[in-house]
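Sequence only, no structure available. Ideas?
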Amino acid sequence: MSLETSTDKPEQGLQAWQFFVLAGLACATVATFLARGQSVASIVLLTVLMGATTIVGIAALRMLRPLFLGYDDRTAMVGQRTRAALEREKMLVLRSIKELEFDRAMGKLSENDWQEMSVRLRARAAGLIRQLDAGVTYRAQVEADLVKRLGGLSATPEAEPARFCASCGSERDTDARFCKNCGAKL
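Reply:
I predicted one. Tokens follow.
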């Protein structure tokens, strides 16, 4: 999974992997024309050989490129672990809580065992969620990218909508389209 932002400029011109694909296709075409009087099996084998050579070239390129161009590791780290590892562990802990609730409902666990395991798992889940929330603030990064993309226009709304209903004066939710008290359109 690549963590590159969409604002990065794509490379212009022919890229190295594209060169290998084009060279492989050209070699396969030449091999096919040279083996015109041969059997179908030999033509197929030559074409497969050229395809395999192309794949080996691309693999060698991927292996050697970091040695010459350097490697920019953009893996999101939270503490000493990657964000993906923390997300996975959070998912597993939440799944364990769900299974624990199911086992309790089915009568497979005593109340004391359920209480002990539930407290431990819920504390671990809360710790993981806090650790993930404290890690990387994506909102600021997304807003900065959006401002850059929009050409300097602000990504946040200029004026906040009214917090109270014009008809009845009751406080409204920020995402509401209708008043929850009188039903008037906001």
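The longest strand covers residues 77-78.
Hope that gets you unstuck.
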